[in-house]
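Q: Hi! First time doing this. I have a protein sequence and I read that you can turn it into a structure. Is that right? Here it is:
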Amino acid sequence: MIGKILGKRYQVVEKIGDGGTAFVFKGMDNLLNRHVTIKVLRPEYVSDLDFVRRFRREAQAAASLSHPNIVSIYDVGEEDGIRYIVMEYIQGQSLKELIDDLGRLPVRMAVDYACQIAHALSKAHKHGIIHRDIKPHNILIGEDGRLKVTDFGIAQAVTASTVTYSDAFLGSVHYFSPEQASGGQTDEKSDIYSLGIVLFEMLTGKVPYSGDSPVSVALKHIQEPFPKPREINSQIPIAVERIIRKAAEKNPENRYISAREMSGELSNFLNGKENVATEQLFTPNLSQTKNLNSNKKRRLKPIHRAALVAALLMIALLIYGVLTLRAYWIVPDVEVPVVEGELLSQAASILADAGLAHRVSDQVVSDLVPAGYVISQSPAAGRVVKKGREIELVLSTGPDLVEVADVMGKMVREATLLLEGQGFAVEVLERHSEELSGTVIAQNPGRGHRISRGSTVTINVSIGGKPFPVRDLRGLNLEDAKKWLELFGLELRFVAEDDSDTFTAGQVIDQIPAAGELVQAGTLVDLTVSKGPGQPGLQRHEIQIPTNDIPVGEEVTVIVRDAAGERTEKFRSTGEQIVTFGLGSGEVEVRWQNNVEIRNFP
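A: Yes, that's right. Below is the predicted 3D structure, encoded as C-alpha cells:
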C-alpha cells in the first residue's frame, strides 16, 4: 500500500496503526497539500456487501459532524476493491498511550478530558449518531492538548455486523455497557456508560472489569457490582467518584439523562462549583382562628350590631386578600436544564421552554468551546429553582486568536523562530523551486489569518530546482558553453586551459560536473578549454566503462592516467555505460563502494 494513490489525490505514506476493522496509514492529500489519516478496511469486511453499504451510510453521516472534539471525516471511497476513509490527521498520541505512560492521570486533567469527550458525544447524539465504541484507543490527543474522538458512525456499522465476542473485540468489551454486553438495544446512554469506564481508567490506571475472555468480561459488566474508584485511588474527590458511578449505573434509567448533563457536572467540578441540594420552599401555616363562644347571651344594640357586621366584613376582606396574595406569590418550582455547550440562542430557547430567563454575566477566552457557546451556567443544571429565575451564563469568545506573521521569502530558521515566538507549532515541508534553497516559498495559513495559539502553521521551503542531467559541453566553444549554462541557471566558476590534439583552441575539452550527472539550478561548473596541440602524435581515445554490476544511482569515481597526467571524474550510475577519454596510452581506475577496477587503454 505504501506509495499507492487513492482517489487520484490521497497518497499512502506510512503505516501507523492496525485496528480490529482497518489498517491505518498516514497519507498526503496531494490536492490540498496536507497530511491526512487513511483507514483501509480489512478484507473480511470488504467482502460483506451488507456491511459495506451500512459502513458507507454511517461514515457519510459521521462526516456531517463538525465539532472541535471530533475528528473530521473528509472523504469515503472505493478503488480496486479497497474501501477507505480519509480523515483528519492528528499529530499526537492516543489517550490509551497516555494512560500507559503515566499510569494514572491527574484528577483535573482526567475530568477535563472526560468533559471534552462528553461535549463530542453531546454533539453526535444531537444528530442521532451513537458511537458504540468509546474507549481510550479511539480518543486522540493533539499537540495542543485538545481531545479528538474518532470512528464516529463506524462502530455502529461494525457492531451491526459483528454479533460474536472474539479476541479482536477484547479491548472494546472492557468498555461495553451491560446492554451491549447482553446483545440488547443500545442508545446514547451506552456511550455515557463507556465514558464512565474511561474516566475510571484515567483516574485508577485500570479498567473496572477484567477476564481471560471477552465473554467473561461481558458477564462481569452485567452481573458484578461496580468497584469503588476511591478504594483504588484515594486522591479521587467524592464528587468525581459520584459522577463515575452515576455514568456507570447498570440500569440505563439511573444514568445521566444525556451527555450534556454529564458534561455539566464535570464542568461544575472544574469551575469549583459543588452540586447543592434542592431548594426547599417553606410556606408559613395560616394561624387558626379561635372560636369565640359566648356563654352569656345578651341583646346587642343596633350600633353594636353594625360594628360587628363591619368587623366581620373586614375580616372576610382580609382573608380574601391574604389568599389572593398567597396565590400570586407562591411560584412553582422548575428544574434548571443543561445549556452548557449550547449556542446562546439555543440555550435561551431551552431556558425559555423551562420557564426561566437568562443573562450573559461574562465572556471569556476558551480553546475548547467555540465562540458564542455557553461555557458555564449558574445555578447549575439539575438545581430546582423558582419559575422565572434568571440563569447567569458565561459565554466563550473562542480561542485566543493571533494574526499569523508573513514569513514568505525568509530563511527557514528565521521563519520558524518568528512563528514559534507567536505561539504556533511549525511544520516544514520541502519542495523543489527556482527560489533560493532554504527560503520559504509558501505558508498555510497565510499572513493576515487569525488562528489560536498552539495551532500548526505549515511552511514550504525551497530545496532548489528539480535535478536534471548536464549536457556534454565538450566540442563547444567557450561562448556557446557559457550561454547554455546561463540558460539552465548553472554558474561558471572558473575556466582552465590545457593542450589538446583533438580539440581546436577555444573549444571545451573537459567539464565538472561530467556529462549526464544530475545538477540543479545554481550548481557551480568548471570548464577546461583547449589551447591547441601540445605534444604532437598523441591520439585521443574514447574509454567506455560498462556499469552492469554497478547499482543504479551509485556514485562512480573514474581516475584517468594518461599522457596529459592524472584527472578524476565522478559519475552517477544510470545503468548505461560511462564514457570518458584518454590521450595516448595509459590506464583508467574505476571505484564504487569498496570496489576498485583498473584497465589499460588503448
